[in-house]
Design brief:
mainly alpha, about 240 residues, globular, about 55% helix, EC 1.15.1.1, oxidoreductase, signal, Mn/Fe_SOD
Length: about 240
């Protein structure tokens, strides 16, 4: 039998360790994903929003930050199964009914899940321009598209620290711009969310560093207006979930 070199012995040992570690890693990933909450997949490639949002930011934002909310929610739901059985808007609008021991965690993680689910949904490549009833509502309630974008960007820029800037919509279709800190969501006040932008630094820091204003301006190139229109109709019909 030929003598193995030190290099071959090390390679064989490394392969053996990797082979033993792989099942454990797969099991850990499966365990993290189990439960009533699941990470919604992106409907477009991570690089599809470049150069406005880079692929690496999308991968980390979606696969790490949002996944962390899902993992935490499933951990909460293990001992509190009703959390995964109730509609998200209902839970967020009635956080006082959530057990005190997990209330802050549910607020942060379920708010983050709702916010990000909406965020991935309303973005995409070649999103076009607002039209139809959405454009009419923007003209009527927000002073037209240019004023709306300027006011939305200003609100997002003034949000101190981490948070979100949203457009809320009533059952009558009336629009308004609002901001929330951290992962709070207007649904916590019983409102409906049409669209919104994430102004946490992890949403833009790799490309824009501290230039939040540049990110806010560029983000409009990623808005999928057909999805916004779908959410507008669902909000008026009372069928909008998150």
């Amino acid at each position: 039998m030929p003598m193995l070199s030190r290099r071959h012995v090390m390679m064989a040992a490394t392969g053996a360790v990797a082979a033993m570690a792989a099942p454990r890693l797969a099991f850990a990933q499966a365990a993290a994903a189990s439960g009533p909450f699941t990470l919604p997949p992106l409907t477009y490639p991570a690089a599809a929003l470049e150069p406005h949002i880079d692929a690496r930011t999308m991968e980390i934002h979606h696969g790490k930050h949002h996944q962390a909310f899902i993992t935490n929610l499933n951990a909460f739901a293990k001992d509190n199964p009703k959390l995964g059985e109730m509609p998200v808007p209902e839970v967020l609008a009635n956080l006082g009914n959530v057990p005190e021991a997990i209330r802050t965690g549910v607020r942060n993680n379920l708010g983050g899940h709702a916010n990000h689910t909406m965020f991935w949904q309303i973005m995409g490549p070649n999103g076009g321009k607002p039209s139809g009833e959405v454009l009419a509502a923007i003209d009527r309630d927000l002073g037209g598209i240019e004023k709306f974008q300027a006011d939305f960007n200003a609100a997002g820029g003034k949000q101190f620290g981490s948070g979100w800037v949203f457009v809320t919509v009533t059952k009558d279709g009336k629009l308004a711009i609002e901001t929330r800190p951290n992962q709070d969501n207007p649904m916590m006040d019983g409102k409906r969310v049409l669209m919104g932008n994430d102004v946490w630094e992890h949403a833009y820091y790799l490309n824009y560093q501290n230039r939040r204003a540049d990110y806010l301006k560029a983000w409009w190139n990623t808005v999928n207006w057909s999805k916004v229109a779908e959410r507008y109709e669902a909000a008026k019909a009372g069928t909008l979930t998150i």
